[in-house]
Amino acid sequence: MRPKRNRPMLRLPTRLSDTVFVVALAFSAGAHAGPQSLASVDSARKISVGEHVFNDTEGNTLTGEKGYITVPEVRGDPDSRWIKVAFIRIPATTPTPAPPVFLLHGGPSGDAIIESRSKRLNVLTEMQDVADYILVDGRGLGTSEPRLSCPVRPDVFVYDFTRYRNTLIAAAAKCIARHKGQGMDLRGYNPREYADDVHELATALGYEKYSLTGNSFASYWAMSIIKRHGAHVYRAALSGVFGLDGAIDLPSEMQAAFEDLGARIDANPDAEKLFGQRKFVDVVDGLMRRLQQSPRDVTVRFNGREETLRFDPETLTFLLYLAGATQHRQGAAKLPGLIFALDRGAYQGVADLLTKQLEAGLKAETPEVNVSSIATICNEVNSDAFMTRFNAEKAKPMEAHWTGSFAVPYSTLFGCDELDIPRLDKSWADPFTSPVPVFAVIGSFDGNTPPDGARRALRKFPNRHEILVNGGGHRHREIEALWDDFLPLKKRFLAGKALNDVPEEIDLPIMEFDVPPWIARLGFRMGLGNFILGMM
């Protein structure tokens, strides 16, 4: 389920159990003095590179390079200012490397360099025995300069979706004004410029051919590169796939992904202990219908003040989205217990639990907006034909696709018109086909980039190998942790080898539940449901 894929550009932490490892970066002795300022870089010498020693918290070290490529903010404008796009390069250890692999980040509010450093060094070394590995931060993001981010007041009650959206738009407007005052040109932040940045970097590094890899928005970015520079792309290994036309998920596709998740939950014997003979999706359907007829308002304490949380179908869908329930197994594991509680009327306890998690998340990470990210999202244009199909589905009654009720055009969600974001022409979404070989991993219950939407995008690539991961969501690292062959197959593909012997589907283990059924049932039998949830 999107909106994004890392969501939304107001970066509110929803993966509260993720651990962030701080990795120090230092120049090694005798290294290059580092990237020069824009003013001192000759346009004919675009690359500035310095050797770096990467260290992690376990004492491991790795020598690589960190650098910048200077590019025009707006290509085609002779008066455009120069900006810097950051990258790191980890050299191959094999004497016969394949074409280099460029790791593109998701989001687009993500960043490849900071995200990789927040984990152990194996993230940086995973491609060394195949090819040079280049991690790129999108323009205006991560360690690229200037970084077009601004903090947001950390006390927004995001469970009020209208207020959440208004806060996002107001914060974005202030951030745009701030960076415009420093010379930023909004015309320079769109998928076309992102694509040309990567190709220019590859060319400047001396690569004629290169491969692309990444998850979620990275797939859109990769397809943008293929559309613009496909003759230079060797291969692409992607997950969480969506394409240039139809970047909005269709409600029917989101509902299909949710129904697959329901089947994964039903496959666990504990589901019967919670819901009896009812299927999980039928329990949710009944809950949604009751809330549609009679919404429930509860009062919670948030940052020392009272807030009202209204439980209705739209809000419940949004809550499930923020909890990651339709995106990854870690979030989905919470879903049976939450739905069990709501099915028994424990709205207060669920509201208290979600509010506590929100407060903890806002204390752990200050939310921010990023102009580059929002502008790029606004430039995920769609064809008239696709929008006709989308609007026809949205016009159906909510009960036709409960989880699809959260499907909205990004121009509406992010206030692209109110913010006066320059937009690419709709021809950007024109269909194209490409002979570039693609290895695509699709999570069966991925509600962020649903399987049917991924297949829509991949039809443009006849030389593709799709693998449906039954029981997989949107997180490729989560799939990798549960499927031992994922990374070896990806490396094999990027090394130029065939995957003819690889199955089209694999099954992950049965999904576990966060709350044991006996605890949930005992708590409610004793009349302590709200209390137990509020204490979690």
Task: Write up what this structure looks like.
This protein is α/β, with parallel strands linked by helices. It folds into two domains: about 45-145 and about 185-250 and about 430-505, 3-Layer(aba) Sandwich (Rossmann fold); about 260-365 and about 510-535, no CATH class. Helix content is about 35%, strand content about 15%. The chain has 20 helices and 15 strands. It has helices spanning about 110-115, 120-125, 160-180, 190-205, 215-230, 250-265, 270-275, 280-295, 315-320, 330, 335-345, 345-365, 370-380, 385-395, 410-415, 450-460, 475-480, 485-495, 515-525, 530-535; strands at about 25, 45-55, 60-70, 80-90, 100-105, 135, 150, 210-215, 235-240, 295-300, 305-310, 370, 440-445, 465-470, 505. Strands 1-2-3-4-6-5-8-9-13-14-15 form an eleven-stranded mixed beta sheet, with helices on both faces. It has a two-stranded antiparallel sheet with strand order 7-12. Strand 10 and strand 11 form a beta hairpin. Helix 4 (about 190-205) packs across helix 5. It is globular. InterPro entries: AB_hydrolase_fold (IPR029058). Keywords: Signal. It comes from Eilatimonas milleporae.
